[in-house]
């Protein structure tokens, strides 16, 4: 899990978790397509969304429930069209990428979760550690 350090156990039996800030580099001279591709390759789990997207909120809640906190990028309209071109022209808000691969929208995420394929995919890309899973 990127940006998370675990310390513990504590005297009372609890575990101390500490989040460290994660910096995202933005180059204003970079084209929208290049910036999107770079962000996808730099982040194991990333959601591209419009602001105030309720489906993005549901995606974040589902992922956080299993212990993953994705990078979320809110795109402007010109960037949305660049993402739409990259994804084949379909609906792109929200668009989830895991390990550089386009998963799709909320429906695809829920389908992965219900088929028990989501957690192994997240472990494979390093977004979730195997030893943190309950057997």
Topology, element by element:
Layout (H helix, E strand, L loop, with lengths): L3 E4 L8 E4 L12 H11 L2 E5 L4 H12 L5 E4 L2 H10 L8 E4 L2 E4 L1 H9 L3 H7 L11
Description:
- The chain starts with a strand and ends in an 11-residue tail after the last helix.
- The chain has helices spanning 32-42, 54-65, 77-86, 106-114, 118-124; strands spanning 4-7, 16-19, 45-49, 71-74, 95-98, 101-104.
- Strands 4-3-5-6 form a 4-stranded mixed β-sheet, with helices on one face.
- The chain is globular and about 40 Å long.
- The chain is built from 5 helices and 6 strands, in the order ββαβαβαββαα.
- It is 36% helix and 19% strand.
Care to give the gist of this entry?
By secondary structure, the chain is α+β, with helices and mostly antiparallel strands.
Please provide the ordered H/E string of secondary-structure elements: EEHEHEHEEHH
Q: Radius of gyration, Cα only, in angstroms?
A: 16 Å
The structure class reads: alpha+beta
Helix content: 25-40%
Intertermini distance: 19 Å
Main sheet summary:
4 strands, mixed
Mean pLDDT: 79
Provide the spatial order of strands within the biggest beta sheet: 4-3-5-6
- Overall geometry comes to globular
How many alpha or pi helices?
Answer: 5
The total count of strands amounts to 6
Low-confidence stretches: 4-8
Strand content: 15-25%
